[in-house]
Amino acid sequence: MDDKLWAEVDNYLTSQLIKPDPVLAEARANSDAAGLPSIAVAENQGKFLNLLARFGRVRTALELGTLGGYSTIWLGRALPEDGRLLTLEANPKHAEVARANIAAAGLAGIVEVRVGAALDLLPGIDEAFDLIFIDADKNNYPEYFRWSLRLSHRGTLIIADNVVRQGKVADATTSDPLVLGVRRMHELIAAEPRVEATALQTVGIKGHDGFAVVLVTS
Ligand code: SAH
Ligand code: DHB
Ligand code: MG
Question: How far apart are CA 213 and CA 218, in angstroms?
Fold first, then answer.
């Protein structure tokens, strides 16, 4: 019912505030052409991630869930020339499309796409990142939060996408494993003394969803 209005407003805001960008448009078009699902962050959300990373002077970032590299490009552009972005993707086809899009964006030198299930790859990573974007399979969000904390330092910003799920997150009786994963992550965040967090609902071309934003404070 409201979705049409939300989409119109997203289109208006984006057309006003975000310059048309052939590289990002191509990345989205290539992903669609390759049959990837249309679930990348919206343009205004991608820029939001980019601005957060610049505001935080982020030099190193970790992303869980690359898809076609759309959010990866927004984040990669926020990093300095000697920055580094490691992004993990389980689906080899998604990773292949992402690598091509990232190269076309001129970011191949600072972005590494690693292929595998994130929970298999995370134990092999031994560094602390300035920013971590959690956007892979939602049922594993609790484990992704635990790993994010391990790969953090004081001041790391952890952002998780899709934490509202059309409002389903507030349903304490849900048996949907994706929603349960998000709810369990929120419980872990609430119980974790090393972080301070909030979450914001979003509406727009992706419907009703939201981001959690978690600052590692010690
Ligand atoms: N961050 C992207 C969207 C990611 S969609 C963007 O906004 O542009 C979620 C991605 O997570 C999909 O590409 C999916 O293949 C990947 N994924 C699903 N389960 C995974 C897992 N266990 N490990 C790593 N990636 C996974
Ligand atoms: C969906 C949206 C996402 O942003 C995501 O990361 C995964 C799935 C969806 O709408 O199904
Ligand atoms: Mg997402």
Answer: 16
